[in-house]
Structure formats: C-alpha cells, structure tokens
Structures
1.
Amino acid sequence: MTSFLLSPEFPDSRPRRNRRDDFSRRLVRENSLSANDFIYPVFVREGKGVEQAVPSMPGVSRYSPDTLLRVAEECMELGVPVLALFPVIESELKTPDGAEAANPDGLIPRTVALLKQHFPELGVLTDVALDPYTSHGQDGIIDDNGYVLNEPTVEMLTRQALAQAQAGVDIVAPSDMMDGRIGTIRKALEANQFIYTRIMAYSAKYASAFYGPFRDAVGSAANLGKSNKFTYQMDPANRNEALREVAADIREGADMVMVKPGMPYLDILRDVKNAFGMPTFAYQVSGEYAMIRAAADNGWLDLDAIVLESLLGFKRAGGDGILTYFALHAARLLKNG
Ligand code: PBG
C-alpha cells in the first residue's frame, strides 16, 4: 500500500506541537479568566432571614438584606469585585409611574447602605430601570396606548439614580434604553457632588426572549403579560445600531458600556470593543443561565466545564468582565484549580 501522504513536506505546519503538553498549552494561552472578571447579580426582597429559590433559575435565590450579607462576604472571600442588586418589589408598592424606584428609603437604597456599611470595599452596582416598580411591568412611564414615554421616564430614572447614589452605590447601571438618559443622569450626579459614581450603561441591550427567567425572579412577568419592550430595547437583527448606541452613551458620560444578552451577541461585543476600546462588559442573562443549568441538571452537559468555557468566550470576544449568575460558582472553580 502506498501512502496517501505523498509529499515529503507533509504537513507543512504542526500546530499540534504547542498543544502536545500541558506546559506549552499554558504558555501559549491567549486569554484567561479570574474572579476579577465577574459581577454577581442577585435578587433582593424585603424580610428577615429569607432565602427563597427562583424556580426558573435553579441555584439562584431571592435574599432579604440580612441574608445578602452572607453572599457579600462570599464575594469578598472569593475576590469577586462587584455585587449587582435587582429588587423584588411588593405589589402594593407598584404604581403606573414606578415612583417607588426613587424612594430614598426604598429596598435598594437601604440594601446598598447596609452592604457599604459592612463591606466598604465590595463594589455595589444598582440597576436603573422602572420595571420592578411599575404596575404594568414596563421599564418606563406609559401613555394611554401603553407607549413608553421617553422624557418623563428619564426624569424618574434620574431621581432613581440619585437615590441610589445618595445611599452610597458605586456604580449605577441604566438598563432602560431610553434616549438621553446617560447624559441626564451624569449631569444630575455631577450637580449633586456624586463625582465618583460610575455609570455602566446597558448600551446595546436587545429586546430578548432570554430575559424570561429574570422577569419571573423580580416578579414583573405577570404584570407585563403579553406586552413586549420592542419600542425601546434593540432589534436582535441589528448590528450597526449597537455601535451608534454605544457611541451616544460614551459621549453622554458612560464610564463603562455593556452588551446584553451575552452568548448570542458575542459579535456585538467584539465590534464594540474594537470600535471604542472602552471598559466593555457582557451580561450572561437569566435565560442563558437557565439553559445551561437545565442541561447540566439533566446530565446532558458538564456544568463546571460549560461554565468556564462560556465565560472564557466573553473574554476572547473582547469583554473586560461579565455579569453572570455563575460568578461565585466560577470563582470557586478557579480558586480550587
Ligand atoms: C431591567 C432588567 C432586565 C434585565 C436586567 N435589567 C429585564 C428586562 O429588560 O426585561 C435582564 C437580566 C437577565 O435576564 O438576567 N430592565
């Protein structure tokens, strides 16, 4: 039998050389993950001693402020730099205009103050959006036709951001997608001497079905019903528009920008990083978490391997960090080698 490998020069390169041994794989590795890359999103609700499971996100809970302190302590131990707070608001407090969002004594400002009192070195991020606070589940104030009004919403969001800054939050993260909100919030922060409050803008936030489990977790799904967020969140078909959104947010004063959701939008993440070179974040959202957990819980995927591979993908795509419900899990895996 004559060989199929006719040419003496075959193969003309051997990329497998570098892959042969662990030492050389480590030596040529281009990207890496560390606990510093993670922001841990958590759900907060009123009460004492509460840790309540979220059915559509196995392994994720809603915490009362006191139990959240234990989570904060774990972030500190594992070196996760930032905790991101999302409120579950009691339905009696929900109104059409979502005014509870701007209550300086509301759940989120109280939780921020408690966290900063116990763990001053842990970064705390708060979401700026009205959907957990509105009786209709939209991120803003609506007219008679249910259309979300831009300017009145920006007013309320700015009051919300100021209440959070007053409570001592480190990063405010507007996730509402109203026009001009970054500039308005930045000016209000500066005017009130909150010159160090960072703004992480949800700049390219798509109208995604991957947010489903989050809406269960904060209890906005039922209020929202069959309505959607297509008049303010971005069309998943669009790519160039994401760059215009990010450009506007940077011009208006964002310190960091975000692309959301994560895994189906890695092309956008790479575009944004290449175009602006800003601190750029990705949000591996609730639906992505639920998919991975469901497959792993069925024994179809190896949870630990998938978690690390999916998070590394964000780094490779240009992300400086990732908001992920796997933050503590991944940090533990990295710590234990
Ligand atoms: C609020 C907000 C949402 C998410 C983060 N902030 C939901 C939405 O826009 O409907 C989604 C996060 C996730 O799915 O994990 N505006």
2.
Amino acid sequence: MINQADLGLLDGFERALINHRLHMVYQPKVSLVDGTLKRVEALVRWDDPKLGVVPPSRFVPLAERYGLIDQLTHWGLTTTLRQWLDWRAKGIDTCIAFNISALSLEHLDFPDLVERMCRALDVPTDRLVLELTEGATQPLIKLMDTLTRFRIKGIGLAMDDFGVGYSTLMQLRQLPFTEIKIDRFFVDDAVTSDDSRAIVASVIQLAHSLDLSVTAEGVETEAQLDLLCDFGCDVAQGYWIARPLEPGKLSQWQADWAKRWATLSRAKVARSLKAAKPVKPVNSRRRTSPPAQAAESIRN
Ligand code: C2E
Ligand code: CA
Ligand code: CA
C-alpha cells in the first residue's frame, strides 16, 4: 500500500515528467594523472512549484517501485545525449556517465534501445558509461547477458557505490565492468581513519589488478584528493572539484579548474621534493602499499 505522502510525490513526479519540468545537471570527473576532464555524470533534478526541490534519493526509488523508471531513463538519456552534442559543438568532447536502475536492465532489448538512441543522435557508444548499483532485490549477476550486450556495443559499465550495499569483489571478477566507483563513505573517512585508508588503497590495487579503472566519489577536501593521488586512484569526483553544474557552466568550470590543477601540481611537486630530503619521514605523504590484512578482509 502506498502512503498519502508518497502518492502525492508520485503524482507530482509523473506530471513533472510529462510536462518537462525535470532537468539534468552534470558533475565533472577528473583524471588524477593530469587533471583533465574525463567525463560528466548526469544527475536528475526536480524543482516542483508546489513541493519545492525533491531530491532524486526520494523520487527515483518511487519511480522504480511504481513503474515510471523506464520513462525517466528514456527522458534522461535523450536529454544527456543531446547535451553531449551541444558541448561537442562548443569544442568540449567529453564522455557521459549515466545512472541506470538495475530494473531497466531486466528488459533484454534494453542495450539495443540504448544503442539506437546513441545512433539516432550520432553519439559514439564509447562516449557512454552506465553507472549501476547493486540492489538487494536485483542481483547484477542475474543480468550478465544484458551487461555483456552493452560491452559488445562499446558502452562502458561502472559499478557505483562500491564498498557499501551488496556489491562484492567476486562480482567484479565475474561481471564485465570497466570501472568501479568507491563510495564517498570511504573517501570521507580515508584521511582520518586507518581502516578506511587501508580499504581505499586495497580496493584501488585490486581493481587495477582486474584491469578496472577506479573513480573516487565525494571528494570534499584537498587532503582527500592528495591521498587518492598517492594511492594511484585514476579519477576523482566531488564537491571540492565541482558541484553538479548546469550545462552552460561546464566550459567556465573547465578553465577555472585547469588553473587550480596547475597550482595543485606545483604544490605537490614541491611537497614531494621536500619529503625526498632525508630529514624525517612524512608518513602521511608516503606511497603506502595496502596492508595484506586489509586486502584479505575485503576478499572475505
Ligand atoms: P549517485 O549516483 O551515487 O550520485 C552521486 C550523488 O552524490 C549525487 O547526489 C551528487 O550530487 C552527490 N555528490 C557528489 N559529490 C559529492 C560530495 O563531494 N559530497 C557529497 N556529500 N555528495 C556529493 P544526487 O544528485 O542527490 O543523487 C543521488 C542519487 O540519485 C544518485 O547517487 C543516483 O543513485 C540517483 N540518481 C540521480 N540522478 C539519477 C538519474 O537520472 N537516474 C537514476 N536512475 N538515478 C539517479
Ligand atoms: Ca552514480
Ligand atoms: Ca555513487
């Protein structure tokens, strides 16, 4: 039984979907090797005249439960692919990360539909990465066929929120993922907690040994970014780098970020030169190899 509050939300959401009152914002993800923009993650926004701003964590699960998720996915993907074309016309040739509910993957023809949508707009499929989260009721392993079809079409697959929820290292080995995203819970803790630091370092090392790229989510401080660079993490995303942006703001952000990155790189080189002097070891800057014990605990 749906309660009154959810019913009101669902009704409002359906109207917003029909009346084009949803919109997308895009959060940049940057390379930790050279600071360049790797891709942008599309995130849906709903600002309702009556209900105010409703967060996706509130309405996406309702859309999943009450049969509106495919419509949301279709609208969101079309909007994002069109946005990609607009950026490209302005000289920004980036990749798109798009969140997909595991429910949409239950349709075997879904990969064909996504490919057709890309073809119709002339967006190369290798510019698209789908982000998936393991749910209690939708084990990804059951969706192996669908996931493999996406890979055959050149579409990338990222396991979202890795480390919380139901995702396991075993699945990383079995499923055709190209990327994992370490959940922001670990990133947030990594600077202060030895355990989280060991987990982040171990996950990066293990993912690399499985030939997967690693993105760290929820980077909110320079110290976190530093640590992730030291651990060899590939890509970072978070408020410290950029908040989710309106599409027209991407170009200005890119110019501002390039300047910030240049300052950061210089500071990092200066710090490592200082650390290289045989005065006394600076433990927090050391390239730590993850304790075997932590790797073992993750495997179990
Ligand atoms: P997600 O895929 O894990 O997306 C990351 C969420 O973390 C976003 O919240 C983003 O705004 C937020 N975030 C990014 N950097 C930081 C940071 O440094 N600190 C903190 N505290 N938060 C940060 P948002 O936009 O509210 O989205 C929440 C969730 O809703 C997403 O989690 C995703 O699972 C889902 N979602 C969002 N847009 C879509 C969509 O178009 N389709 C589907 N199926 N799900 C969506
Ligand atoms: Ca995501
Ligand atoms: Ca996530």
